[in-house]
Every structure is written in C-alpha cells, then in structure tokens.
Amino acid sequence: MTRAERTFVTRCSLAVRPIDSWTGRPPGGSSLTVRLLETGRKPVQTSDGSYAFLDFADSACTLVIGSPTYLEVRRTLDLTRLDPRMPTVTVSMLPNRAYPPPAASTGLVFTVCNPAGDAVPGAEVSAYIDDEAAIRGRVAEEKTERGAQAVLVAPGGVRLSSGDSFVLRERTGTAEEWGFVDGIDGSGNRLLLGGPLSGVWSRGAKLLPAVRTRSDENGLVIVPFRGQLPPTCQVRVEISSGDRRFTDVWTMEAGNVTRLPPVRL
Questions:
Q1: pTM for the full model?
Q2: From CA 128, how far away is CA 232, in angstroms rounded?
Q3: What share of the chain is helix, strand, coil (3-state, %, to 5)?
Q4: SS3 for 176?
Q5: Interior angle at CA 23, CA 20 and CA 24, nearest 5
Q6: At 225, is the pLDDT very low, low, confident or very high (cuts 50, 70, 90)?
Q7: pLDDT greater at residue 106 or residue 4
Q8: How many angstroms separate the CA atoms of 31 and 54, rounded?
Q9: Burial environment of residue 94 by CB neighbours within 10 A (0 to 12, 13 to 18, 19 or more)
Q10: pLDDT band at 152 (very low <50, low <70, confident <90, very high)
C-alpha cells in the first residue's frame, strides 16, 4: 500500500463542553486540565471551546477537570447514554475563592464550620430561588411520566441551558424535585435530563433556578446565580455534611454577591 492509499479514521467518543456557571459562556482566562482517568490520551480542543476525546473504546469513564479558578470536577459518565452522532457532555464549572466575580454578579458567599469554629470541607450545598419572578419555565405537558428523562417546557424570561440545575415545584404545592439539564432538543423547549424524574408533574409546574456546590478545603462556599432576577428574592438553602444538616431561607439582592455570616453545622 502506498502512502497515498493509507486511510486513517478517527471517531469522537466524547466531547466535553465546559461552561462558566456565572456567565453561561466558555471559561475565559483560566487554564483547564481536562482528562479521563482511564486513558493517558489528551483531548483535542475544538474551535467552540470543547475538549474532544478520540477513539476511546470503553463504555464508561471518569471525567476530571482541574482549574486554578474553579472547583475540581470529578464525574462518572455512561457513554452509552450519549448521542453517538454528537456525544457531548456540558459541564457547569463552579467558582472557587480565586475566581473574581463578574460585574453585577448575583450570588452568596459564606463559610461552613463546626460548633468549635473549625472549617468543614466538602459540605454539600443546595440552593434555589423561590420567587415567581425568577421562574425559568413551566411544564408544558399535561402530566410528566414518572421516570421520564426529558420534559417539555414553556420557557420563562430566562431559558435554562445545558449544565444548569433547577428545582421543580407545583404551582400551589410545596413538593419539589431537583433536576439537571443534560441537553436541549428540538426548538429548545424539550429539556433532556441528567436523571429520571421521580415525581409526576402537572402542566404549569414551575422550574426555578438552582445551584448545587460544595465547600472548599477552608469551608468557603460560593453560590453563583445567573440571569435576570427580581431586585430581592428568597433563597432556600440546605447544607449537609455527614449526619449534620442545616436549612434556612435567606434574602438575596440581584446584582450583588452577598457575604453572609458563617454557618455552623
């Protein structure tokens, strides 16, 4: 076979698309290290800021993203769930203490400590905005199916994007369920979910902006919210570490990063 007759075929097994959780855009001014634990091959960076892994043979992998300005990402992926024509995963990068908040950012900053005042690293933090003016969409189906991995929505003033978390709540009830946008199909009104719905949701149920993050090695927590928000809004917060748990409702101002007193677990 001559050199001219040789043919090399490569296949994109996984494309990782990082986005900044505060801006919704690809991270800027930060050197990301994107790798899979199962291979020493480096990804190819594409023109849209994604990282493409070529000719990866396994059906599952562990994605690790390191950065000087974002919390480390470590996520197990089932590649068989991805569209083989475009096997893309969007990863929302959460800020760490070295990240300078963009102008007019909205968010919360606080530390988590134990009763003795020592930092609690790795505490799990869940927060969502409970305000009608902050709705990111409503369920557009008559009823969702239990176990559904996609949901049709009527978008709100600010659309949810791939990589975003949200909370589902009925219009009049207090029941809630956390969800994650894994992708967007069709006209942008069908959200592909990161996991199956555990509840059944009626038409009009609201999708509220939400964040899930964790405390760093010094107990610091940064909770970033993106998009248009009411001037002041209520944020429902839950913090847990082991068997210790804290819940509260805090008031936040749009366009400000609010620093709060330490939370003692």
A1: 0.89
A2: 14
A3: 5, 45, 50
A4: strand
A5: 65
A6: very high
A7: 106
A8: 21
A9: buried
A10: very high
